Amino acid sequence: MFFSCCDHFRARADLAGASKNRGLFAGISVEGAVVRVRTSLNRAYFGKAVTPTDILVRRSVKNRNANSLLDAVKKAAAAS
To answer: Residue 42, Cβ neighbours under 10 Å: how many?
Structure first.
């Protein structure tokens, strides 16, 4: 999903991610920024208009071109 931050005043964003076995945690903290969805970029990536809910909650969309990356990640996770 593509997001854009507008820097109207001093903005700070922290992203963190960690994985262990089969679990994954990812967090985001955005202070003093406006976060908006880049609908045109999501449409270009997925080939149709999608919402953040479609991507993150329903998981109803996929990009076939990402399959090789997903396979590599699965292999790396299985090896560790």
So the answer is: 21
